[in-house]
Amino acid sequence: MRGFLALEDGTLFEGESFGAGGKKAGEIVFNTSMAGYQEILTDPSYRGQIVSMTYPLIGNYGVNPEDVESSRPRVEGFAVREYCDYPDNWRSRGTLADYLRESGVVAISEIDTRALTKHIRTAGAMRAVIAAGDCSPEELVREAREFPGLVGRDLVREVTCASAYRWEGEAGPKRFKVVAYDFGMKYNIARMLSRRGCDVRVVPAATSAREALSGDPDGVFLSNGPGDPAGVPHIVEEMRKLLDKKPIFGICFGHQILGLAFGARTFKLKFGHRGANQPVKDLATGKVQITAQNHGFCVDAGALGGAGVELTHVNLNDGTLEGMRHRELPIFSVQYHPEASPGPHDAGYLFGSFVELMQGRKKR
Burial of 158 by CB count in 10 Å (0-12 exposed, 13-18 middle, 19+ buried)? Predict the structure, then answer.
């Protein structure tokens, strides 16, 4: 079956469908990871986006029930250069194509993903439609232009949990109670917290500060998530009420929410940072970490100084803000993903830093 990817500027890529039928609209972005396509597909931060992989061969190790970061794929569509329909891996339980068809994800292969990536880097991430079957290219371009985009939209409500629940799975004693706001939280975040002795209670994004504090937790975690942080002012307002109450650790979308709560603003990056090979410099040590990232918005560091916040990490590719901490309050956050999955484990120590903050608060 033929497959199409049509961009709002009229650019059209034609290939072969290997996923579900139909068509979906979203923002077209690229991910530079060499592996981990199943984790990428199930990352809730990709809600509203069509993902193109820069690595040319995808599907070669199949899929399995362990390598997921949420209950199902969250991408709007998937584009690759070459799809492998005969996976060879001892953990494989099926093909990527079957997995995508069962999940209703439109996917295409045999397109020039290198040309697509270069186009996005030059023109910026843009609205697009991915389709399977016989379609009118002109009609697809028109539909891409009608897609509302991500700016100002609340996509968090589409991926957050319906009700609070306690994370189960990692054995061992639990010394700290953590309330984790689910803005689209990846499973591996809960695993990393649990393995460090945290009893994790995951709560919906709309949970009030008062309700979050009702169980007297030792700390509050703000997760990753999709879309524009400026599109959820109600969440920002509740986070402001938590700033001087408990130790807080934010990742990605949670980092952006903290930035807004501190009085800064956020802005949309030209094509974002997505992949498992993003270099970040720790300003305190001068060391460089290779990090996993997935975001299209960024905190503007300009207004943070007056809020008592100092910068801790910067992106070495474009100099944008990647980490911050409050000078007096036990609060810190990073724009990248220390839980990785997929990606390097350079930044996993940050979960230990959060535990140390909670331990210090307990002693006082």
Answer: middle
